[in-house]
Design brief:
single chain; 80 residues; mainly beta; six-stranded mixed β-sheet; two-stranded antiparallel sheet; globular
Length: 80
Amino acid sequence: MADTHFSGPVYSANGFVGNLNTAGATAGTAGPGLISGSIVPVLTAAKGTLYINTSATTAATRLYINTDGAGTWAAFTAAA
């Protein structure tokens, strides 16, 4: 099956609003993607997915990675 590309806004029942860009994902395969939003991630995503919090105010709340293919996210700590 050919590659499938997704791009656009994401909305969820828990109030998450963000952007999704998983270019190159193969249909039927749940691969990691890149998501951005204005809250700490509270959604289920593929293991390895990166989440950028666009409203973060500290270095410890700007970037997250999904660690289990479900709803567990680990924060990256960045230096300014």
